[in-house]
Write a structure and sequence with these properties.
38% helix; two-stranded antiparallel sheet; 5-stranded parallel beta sheet
């Protein structure tokens, strides 16, 4: 039987049974639909009752452009070493421990500005499941293994390559790039990052066939 969105809802809903907090990671190459899947999961699990699922994207840990300029990494924005991976891992650990029952504030990412914004994502004490998504959750290099160690499970978004590229180019255009500029950026930068992500896909707990899911975009 093919995997359905209802199957994913049931799998995620079954975890938080002991009162503790769980963290689900959603990985995949740029444009594969990670954010879309996360948003649909959070909406579907929360329903109309008291919210118990929160969404914390990895993109809030992008280094700011000023820091990328200082490091000489501005033209590689989006690569693994252009994120504060250690800070991301530390936040995930704080979320897992849930030590004080406080609201935890995570950084967000403004796509129009293409800049991280501190304190933009509140995670309330009532959140027993945190869904986090990003390209590099499964990487084995640098400090990224710390991230994987703080995730209870990781799902990998699997999408037809041509469709993934089409969506990715369209996204860049939607946020201000001209068509030629979008294509150039995707083929030069995003594709290099996509190869790194794809190489680690076998470390995922579940492969999610994105082309088969009926999701709200």
């Amino acid at each position: 039987m093919p995997l359905t969105f209802d199957d994913l809802l049931a799998r995620a809903r079954a975890w938080p049974r002991d009162g503790g907090r769980r963290v689900l990671g959603i990985a995949g190459s740029p444009g594969a639909g990670k954010s879309t899947l996360a948003e649909n999961l959070v909406r579907g699990l929360n329903g109309t009752g008291r919210p118990w699922v929160a969404h914390v994207p990895m993109d809030g840990f992008h280094l700011a452009d000023a820091e990328l300029e200082r490091l000489g990494l501005r033209d590689r924005k989006g690569a693994p070493d252009t994120f504060d991976a250690a800070g991301y891992a530390a936040l995930l650990q704080r979320l897992r421990e849930d030590e004080y029952g406080d609201v935890v504030y995570a950084p967000g990412f403004e796509r129009v500005l293409e800049q991280p914004i501190a304190g933009a994502v509140p995670v309330p004490p009532s959140a027993r499941l945190v869904v986090t998504e990003g390209n590099y959750l499964l990487l084995t290099s640098g400090v990224w293994p710390r991230v994987r160690g703080r995730l209870d499970e990781v799902w990998f978004c699997d999408l037809d390559e041509q469709e993934r590229l089409r969506r990715l180019i369209a996204r860049h255009e939607r946020f201000g790039k001209g068509h030629d500029e979008a294509v150039e950026w995707v083929m030069r930068s995003d594709q290099r990052n996509a190869e790194l992500v794809a190489a680690a896909r076998d470390r995922a707990d579940l492969m999610v066939p994105m082309g088969d899911l009926a999701l709200t975009y």
